[in-house]
Design brief:
76% helix; 6 helices; mainly alpha
Length: 161
Amino acid sequence: MSGVHKINIKSLAINLGISLGVGILSGLLSMSGTDSFEDVVKPPLTPPSFIFPIVWTILFTLMGISAYLISQSEANNKSTALIIYGLQLAVNFFWPIFFFNMQAYLFSFIWLILLLILIIAMTVSFMSVNKTAAYLQIPYLLWAAFATYLNFGVFLLNPKL
């Protein structure tokens, strides 16, 4: 039975709770700003609004699973990986508030670049601890890059805001 690890349900639930909780709280805090977003000119390839919460739920779930895998590791550098994870989670938390509530589109774009840098740093640090945890972040990195394009497009197409 080597290679088979017992799942620590409590730790998995805590890690999922943290990641999903951050996403839910950020979503709730920015919900009032999403109404005015319907009137904003959007760039090509913007998905329908209902897609965003589905994708983000999947991504926050993958983040929680990855954080769980890192937390269960015996690697010496797992603390550094989890600190970077926490930093990117905090940056992620504030983006919708800046973007939707404050309509600070240029600032939000710059904030997303910071988030992308942190996602890359997190993925690299995860890779040195647990390759599966790192691979689970690839969809997040791709979606954040796409969100950066969308954010920049909104900034360019809505200069008066």
